[in-house]
Amino acid sequence: MQFPEALKYTKDHEWIKIEGNTATVGITEFAQRELGDIVFVDIDSVGKALQTNDIFGTVEAVKTVSDLFLPVAGTVTEVNPGLDGSPESVNQDPYGDGWMIKMTIADTAELESLLDAAAYKALIGE
């Protein structure tokens, strides 16, 4: 299983890649494996200012529907357009083509509360 060192992680299995005041968010390889085959991603939060741990969308797999939680407070600026026609890209490339949203971060100090790769690996027992 992959745990890219450049990312931060949440206990709810989202990852966040920080580029200045902008961040890209998705679900981890562990999360997509637990969910199974992803068949639909529903995100309707573009333009919304949300707080840390607010639900920004859902991901539907063959087995279940799971909420997606925002890692830090901010405003959702973009949804991955590729997910409409290819939700399976979350399974195939969760840290690349399977990203979910881009957002502006309200307070970069919140990033300190997120897990690094080693802490996330420990959380899931790797």
From TrEMBL:
Is Membrane tagged as a keyword? no
Q: Which residues carry this modification: N6-lipoyllysine?
A: 63
The UniProt note on the cofactor reads as follows:
Binds 1 lipoyl cofactor covalently.
Tell me yes or no: is Oxidoreductase among this UniProt entry's keywords: no
Q: Which cofactor does it need?
A: (R)-lipoate
Q: Which Pfam families match?
A: GCV_H
Q: What PROSITE patterns does the record point to?
A: BIOTINYL_LIPOYL, LIPOYL
User: Which superkingdom, per the lineage?
Assistant: Bacteria
Domain spans labelled Lipoyl-binding: 22-104
Under InterPro entries, the record lists:
2-oxoA_DH_lipoyl-BS (IPR003016), Biotin_lipoyl (IPR000089), GCV_H (IPR002930), GCV_H/Fam206 (IPR033753), GCV_H_sub (IPR017453), Single_hybrid_motif (IPR011053)
What's in the keyword line of the UniProt record?
Lipoyl
Q: What does this protein do?
A: The glycine cleavage system catalyzes the degradation of glycine. The H protein shuttles the methylamine group of glycine from the P protein to the T protein.
The UniProt entry's sequence similarity note says: Belongs to the GcvH family.
Quaternary context: The glycine cleavage system is composed of four proteins: P, T, L and H.
Q: Which NCBIfam families match?
A: gcvH, PRK01202.1
By its UniProt entry, which HAMAP family does this protein fall under?
GcvH (MF_00272)
Q: Which PANTHER family match?
A: GLYCINE CLEAVAGE SYSTEM H PROTEIN (PTHR11715), GLYCINE CLEAVAGE SYSTEM H PROTEIN-RELATED (PTHR11715:SF3)
Q: What is this protein's name?
A: Glycine cleavage system H protein
Q: Which organism is it from?
A: Rurimicrobium arvi
